[in-house]
Specification:
38% strand, alpha+beta, homotetramer, Thiol Ester Dehydrase, Chain A, 30% helix
Chain lengths: 149, 149, 149, 149
């Protein structure tokens, strides 16, 4: 099974994009900073898929990234196409952790792994708030569309 | 006279910053895109100096960048310190053009020249508006602090 | 005819990509700097299509961006998909000018127009050099695949 | 003691820079991706201070970022000035971990904490290599210039 097929089998949200020349730094590899933009692209698509932007408009509760981590396994270079997989790793009352795998088509391998911890935040009062139940349910439904190893 | 002294003599607003390693691309020069961030840094400091942010809050009228241009004379590399000069080139009723020169300390020379055309915009109605008189006066006062060749 | 169809009819090289959330700045529009990365993506694809990277390896002659310009007609926002068209505007012995149009699917319109002037440069000697004939011929062939108004 | 003074007391390498307007995203806070560029600026200055670039030229052994982490404690906004502290956390034969604290002048507080794990890498052979002894000694000397709690 290709690395991409394995990703699609196990991550419910996949964003596919080209590595662009300008993503590389003077070592002629994709710069470490850029991977966090890749993660952000995956994360935002995950939020869009569960309709968080509409829920945020209705409840005033949105996500704040509290911490994030990347482990660089293999360097990416231009030209290449990558698939950014995003899935839920753990959910608590007022926070959850998501996981990213970035698969390179040129390498047919996972290039980078990452995680992000998101806190449920009520912007008007500046306080943490429990995740809306509707949102948690949508995440469960989305996650049920793929297999977990 | 050093290139920096010449810049200070002729541009009323100077932003000084380090070229960082990550500004370079895989040709090991500062990437062309980054120069427009340098220009933006200079432009925003110019706006801050004339108090446009307060005027925008009071009048709802703010700047929109309508067009911009860069001419790359000499490539920048890390490590270096640059001085971004910004000055008014031409003012009309509802728009004005600013000019940037970026001086490299390592080269003791102007590395890049640029321009930006800004339109006076009323965000609430989505329409062009004449520049507030107060703002035009402040720009004249600021520009009078330097010599023009 | 849609703005995209018009673009495809008149520009030989089209790069299609998603506007990502992080392309926006605090005015909640795509930041002006990002458009030059879009242009770069189009430019690099144009160079890839005419095989300049191979020619550069064989001859040591590559492109240097000498100047660039953007005119912002309509702001882009996330989410959207854009089509970046690139075509030759003018060719001289040791330089040429390319033109970009960025079409937004959400707006069905040209959001931004740009140009870039590229100089033919021999890196080892640090001097301008005439464009390799093979390259000029490939550009002519590529340009002949579309109509020009 | 100010947060900056505490940073200077405990981190041997400090990079000071302005938060620029373009560092913010559409939530009007500095975007999460940008913090990793701040860390990179600190890391590169640390490497410059121990002369790794010269050692890399002599030995062919350079650093590769294997993993990195950020914990976002308080959001940064423009305008502000930040101090990026970098220090050694742990050193092994062929790798070491560095730690970053970013102090905001406006907040008089640590805004972000981060870590990076660097592997000693011989580029020509593509293999991990022990850290050059000279480099380890220089790191010890540099670290001895500050107090550790």
């Amino acid at each position: 099974m290709s690395a991409k097929d394995e990703l699609v089998r196990t991550f419910p949200v996949i964003v596919t994009q080209a590595v662009v020349w300008g993503d590389m730094d003077s070592y002629q590899h994709v710069n470490n900073v850029v991977y966090f933009r890749y993660f952000e692209n995956g994360r935002l698509e995950y939020f869009r898929r569960i309709g968080w932007f509409e829920i945020e408009e209705a409840t005033g509760i949105g996500p704040i990234l509290a911490s994030t981590h990347a482990r660089f396994r293999r360097p990416l270079t231009y030209p290449d196409t990558i698939h950014i997989g995003t899935r839920l790793l753990e959910m608590k009352d007022d926070r959850f952790t998501i996981e990213h795998n970035i698969v390179s088509e040129a390498l047919d391998d996972v290039a980078t792994e990452g995680q992000g911890m998101l806190v449920s935040f009520h912007y008007a009062t500046g306080k943490k708030m429990p995740l809306p139940e509707e949102l948690k349910e949508r995440m469960r439904v989305l996650e049920a569309t793929v297999q977990r190893n």
